[in-house]
Amino acid sequence: MSKPRKSSRHADKKLYRSAYLMELARGSSYIASTLTPATQRAAIQEVLQEFRAQHGAEKLFIFRELLAESLEKRQNPHAAQAVLTFEPL
After folding, report:
1. At what angle do helices 77-85 and 60-73 cross, to 10 degrees?
2. Which end of the chain, N or C, is surrounded by fewer C-beta atoms within 10 Å?
3. What is the C-alpha separation between 37 and 54, in angstroms, rounded?
4. b/e for 8-47, b at 16 or more Cβ within 10 A?
5. How crowded is residue 58: how many other Cβ atoms within 10 Å of its Cβ?
6. Can you list the alpha helix ranges (DSSP code H) found in the chain?
7. The domain containing residue 77 runs over which residues?
8. Closest CA to 66 of 4, 18, 2, 5
9. What whole-number distance in Å separates Cα of residue 14 and Cα of residue 69?
10. How far is residue 22's CA from residue 18's CA, in Å, rounded to a whole number?
């Protein structure tokens, strides 16, 4: 029974990834370009706040996951972890 749930989750992520393609590209690029932990935190906060303002707080969790995956693909695991552990205001 866990198999359908996993594939359903994968399908949901694929749908959201394509829906938020522009936000993910812009956000991961912006966060990856930061040079210090302080500027990284500020960039993460800005990206997440803008997303929440446009799409609502209920979609923020999935966006954070996808944003972290995007940063992993950019070879930036530290930024990906920072996104996952960041507590939005």
Report:
1. 170
2. N
3. 26
4. eeeeeeeebbeebeebbeebbeebbebeeeeebeebbeeb
5. 8
6. 2-19, 21-32, 37-55, 60-73, 77-85
7. 2-85
8. 18
9. 12
10. 9
Distances (CA, A) of 28 to 1, 5, 7: 34, 28, 25
Query: What pLDDT tens digit does each residue of the chain (89 aa) get?
Result: 445 556 777 788 899 999 999 999 999 999 999 999 999 999 999 999 999 999 999 999 999 999 999 999 999 999 999 999 998 76
pTM of the model: 0.86
Place of tokens 């209920």: 58
Structure tokens given for 10: 């994968």
* Number of other CB atoms surrounding residue 51 within 10 Å: 21
